[in-house]
Write the structure tokens for this entry.
Amino acid sequence: MNNPHFNDALPRLYEAELSPSIVSARFGLDPAAIVDFSLNVNPLGPPSSAVAAARATLDSCNLYPDAQLAALRKALARRHAVDFDQLFFGAGLDDVIKLVLHAWTAEGDAVLIHVPTFPRYELEARLRGCDVVAVQADPPWTIDVDALRAQLASRRVAVAFLCTPNNPTGATIATSDIEALAARFRDTLFIVDEALGNPLDDGATALERREPNVVVLRTFSKASGLRACGSVTRSVRVRCSRSPNAAGRHST
Amino acid sequence: MTAAAEAAAIAALDDAAFVTRSYETFHAETQWFCDALARLPPFVLRGGHANMLLIELSSGTAAACVDALAAKGLLVADAACFGTHDARAAIRISLRDRAANARLLAELQELA
């Protein structure tokens, strides 16, 4: 292992610890009888409209896909009233989180998180060699915006992750609070993870039209039910104002 | 991203009815499950959103609870993975259909 930041103190990932195949083997259970409540999948399955659309492409699956994802890009840009090149796609939000961190941080930079929250932020930040500043509210299933503001004021923070609704507590941060933080701390990139938000709501995407240091993460894999099509169908909107290493201008 | 995934994503983007139906299902199952859970004192609901519930255990460890449920074929997440929570024992679950949710609830009742 060449990454010196890889060690036993890294956050655990629940999805790596349990799977139907592991449990089936360990307890001698029929895999078909195992139900996974640990991962957030849509109980309705995928939308039939999406399945039909995917099937319609199979006759040309020998061709390379459009690397720009222009059709999806146009549809999302229209939906959220953002520029075509503000959109960035990854192989799941885990991928996007890693890529954005690599684009916006260097080893030793401070990354702010509120805890408890989605463990991927801390994992990727630590693997990057960043200093993770964790803020816990009281009670811990809430988010203390004042405490976040105090940490941001006390040091230079390269990236702040705001998970709203928060995974796993469901706590939310008002869009007005996010906007105020972004306006006051311009040197910090605020990554607003709305994976658990209602995709029909505008959420923090409105901020991307007026705040240069806000990135909003969205996904198709929860309410839109598209995990069955592969985790590659998630999207992120990025305002690429911090070029030149603006990974957000390119799709994967 | 494959062309199939892109096409599916575009179709899903236009399928507001599916998202609405998903939320109706999430809310109905959450309400049903939480009403039943409220009658099980060892389990305290600490938050939920988008088909996801954080359940605190007033006794025992999350690891033991996760293990006991896994032995019955039910996978739940140990909330310790999500970082500091005052060392409270908690699990995170994402609800499924009514039959599966009822099965989980029955096993939680066994553990209570």
Notes: The first helix of chain B runs from residue 3 to 13. Helices of chain B lie at 3-13, 16-37, 62-71, 98-111. Chain B touches chain A through 61 residues (CB under 8 Å). Chain B has one domain: 3-111.
